[in-house]
Design a protein that fits this description.
The protein is of the alpha+beta class and about 650 residues long. The chain contains 25 helices and 21 strands. Strands 15, 16, 17, 18 and 19 form a five-stranded antiparallel sheet that branches. It has a four-stranded antiparallel sheet with strand order 4-3-6-5, with helices on both faces. It is flat.
Length: about 650
């Protein structure tokens, strides 16, 4: 996989470069297929700082490498590797990932990121009144609810208590208990239109009616403060009894105070949480909770206590929430992330919430302006007549004779879209929960979405024609994948399985695989002179490494370190000041350490066996095969180079 990454990763590097418009010329041909100067210059400049081998920076040498690279791609295509299913799927997957950068409106995305981050620096305390309304409500129902919410706003502005109005009229079930107060929250915690109303309404004022997928809201901003970040805490909890029994409530209060006293006496918080906490989800973890920010929990008292703790390991006094008694321990405070730190997470959130509609709508508008759509109004009217109210119950059926609708419904650029395709699209949309009324409006709604879908598909399919840099990335990635598959087939598999070839290659190149002098040794080191003397005596008595350590080390103190093995001359494990000759050395000090070396055997320099250097031999054999293979490819394919053009390219690059 690492090798595969090497062959395809360069495709990622080219993305984002400026592609200057240059007059490209044919640099060379392979089987009359032209390869141009612009690609060679671009790839050379891109890879210039990546190569470590200075010879590859030489233009003449790099030119030969580039021709060899293109020869391999021609060979891959000749073998039909481009038709391999796995190759096609991998290429398709990569294109889909790369296309995401183009199938969006970067300006709108940037604005949403900046807006989201600016909002995330604050927390808003807001109350709301909700009048429920389905997204697909009839116009008359929408108008009725809108008038009702306007009337409630008027009453609030005239002095009636907003909380009382919420209790009386809001269709949010929680309003009966919280008077519509949602507590503090920051960006990405509410649906986007509601969030926008909360963050754009001044403190103490009431927003105009705002429409979300839940209905119409009035939003009153009670307070605005700086975001407190996030916090990680652990807690011990005794839950309120289900029947609110006063005796049980008092018993819990007594118990939580006893637990707190144990903590004050030095008992471990985590152990007490495991023993006494009734929060089953956290008790086994010593009371540890997932990190949270304002508005993420359903207890403002719990959140305020958590953010009120200042230092890690600080423990709160017992406190009560609507759920029971708690003792809290601060684990860590997490400050607000910087824009760069938060960017990836915000992009993910934007893609999942209603903000993404703004990006999609912006791109759709650009595509509508870019591609002029012509519609067959007569055929469209014919289709509209087919659709009736059965559509709302998902009982509408396609016409029996679809041939009557096979005519061209719309066209743009070189694309023609037929009426039957739109009818099939309509049929599938019956499951869509959003269905505007009346029926004429519904068909127009789905038609516009259908057109947008077709424009996006066309735009996506033509990214290579629209963006030279996208085409270049895909071309290089395509070649990289093919090259990997080809090398695996023609070189790597062969080099691993060709035992006779590997053996012959090793025999012919023995001088490249040589051992230096090797020493079979026991090396003992210690920081204590007296221990070194004891170790020397033990080695003189032919004691083993294990016996020496067992004699001189204790359970609590390591007096000596010992190593045994065969080491090649120059190995860092061998002490520098001790002459390596057979037998036991004197004690030598190097820095703070005393060393003794016992040389059991000296193996003189000589050639390595194939088994001793097989990994390196196989790698060298691969390179040998590839070099000879490229020469063979030059014989298999007709290559013509334009030396005059190459000379001009060299001058251009060196300027």
């Amino acid at each position: 996989m690492k090798i595969k990454f090497f062959y395809v990763a360069f495709a990622l590097l080219i993305f984002g470069l400026n592609f200057a418009q240059t007059n490209k010329q044919v640099l060379f041909t392979i089987e009359d297929q032209p390869y141009y100067t612009d690609e060679f210059i671009r790839v050379y400049n891109k890879n210039l700082d990546l190569v470590k081998d200075e010879s590859q920076k030489d233009l003449d040498h790099y030119f030969e490498l580039f021709i060899g690279y293109k020869l391999k791609i021609n060979k891959a295509n000749k073998l039909g590797l481009q038709h391999n299913t796995q190759y096609q799927n991998e290429l398709k997957s990569y294109r889909g990932q790369l296309a995401k950068n183009y199938l969006t409106d970067s300006k709108v995305t940037k604005e949403l990121l900046e807006e989201g981050y600016a909002r995330s620096l604050k927390e808003v305390n807001a109350s709301h009144i909700l009048l429920s309304l389905e997204e697909s409500a009839k116009p008359e129902d929408t108008l009725r609810v809108y008038k009702q919410i306007l009337e409630l706003r008027k009453r609030a502005l005239n002095g009636e208590d907003f909380g009382n109005l919420a209790m009386q009229f809001s269709q949010d079930p929680s309003a009966k208990e919280n008077k519509g107060n949602l507590g503090y929250f920051s960006a990405f915690r509410m649906v986007y239109p509601f969030e926008t109303a909360a963050f754009t309404t001044p403190k103490g004022e009431i927003s105009l009616p705002v429409r979300t997928r839940f209905g119409y809201h009035l939003v009153k901003v009670n307070d605005i403060r700086d975001n407190r970040g996030e916090v990680t805490v652990a807690h011990i909890m005794l839950m309120n009894p289900a029947d609110d029994n006063p005796d049980e409530m008092e018993k819990n209060k007594t118990t939580i105070n006893e637990i707190y006293a144990k903590i004050q006496q030095g008992e471990e918080f985590e152990a007490l949480a495991k023993q006494f906490s009734q929060d089953k989800s956290s008790a086994s973890k010593g009371g540890l909770l997932n990190r949270f920010g304002s508005g993420q929990l359903s207890s403002e008292e719990f959140e305020n206590t958590a953010f009120g703790l200042q230092k890690p390991n600080e423990i709160s006094k017992p406190f009560q929430t609507q759920f029971g008694w708690h003792i809290m321990k601060l684990i860590e405070k997490h400050p607000i992330k910087t824009f760069d730190e938060a960017k990836g997470e915000m992009e993910n959130k934007i893609s999942r919430d209603e903000r993404s509609r703004k990006i999609t709508e912006s791109l759709n508008e650009k595509l509508r302006a870019k591609y002029k759509v012509k519609r067959n109004d007569a055929l469209y009217a014919k289709i509209k007549k087919l659709v009736d109210d059965r559509f709302y119950e998902s009982n509408w059926d396609l016409p029996t004779n679809m041939k009557d609708f096979n005519g061209e419904l719309l066209s743009f650029e070189d694309k023609k879209v037929y009426g039957s395709l739109f009818l099939n699209y309509l049929n599938a949309q019956q499951k869509n929960p959003v269905q505007p009324r009346p029926i004429g409006k519904l068909v127009d709604f789905h038609y516009q979405n259908f057109v947008d879908s077709e424009l996006n598909l066309y735009y996506n399919a033509n990214l290579e024609n629209e963006f030279p840099e996208f085409a270049a990335v895909m071309e290089e990635y395509r070649d990289g994948l093919l090259l990997f598959d080809l090398m695996e087939k023609e070189i790597w598999e062969k080099s691993k399985t060709d035992t006779l070839g590997i053996k012959a290659f090793h025999e012919a190149n023995k001088l490249n695989y040589m051992w230096k002098n090797r020493y079979d040794v026991i090396i003992v080191s210690t920081t204590k002179a007296d221990v070194a003397k004891k170790a020397h005596k033990l080695l003189a008595k032919n004691k083993s490494m294990e016996e020496i350590k067992a004699t001189l080390n204790t359970k609590d103190i390591i007096n000596v370190m010992a190593t045994a093995g065969t080491f090649e001359e120059g190995n860092d494990a061998l002490p520098k000041t001790i002459p390596l000759k057979k037998g036991l050395s004197e004690i030598k000090q190097e820095g703070n350490y005393f060393y003794i070396v016992k040389v059991n055997e000296i193996k003189e320099a000589g050639p390595k066996t194939l088994e001793e250097c097989k990994g390196r031999v196989v790698n060298d054999y691969q390179q040998y095969l590839e070099e000879n293979w490229v020469s063979n490819l030059k014989s298999e394919f007709k290559v013509k180079t334009n030396q005059e053009v190459f000379t001009a390219v060299k001058k251009q690059i060196k300027q």
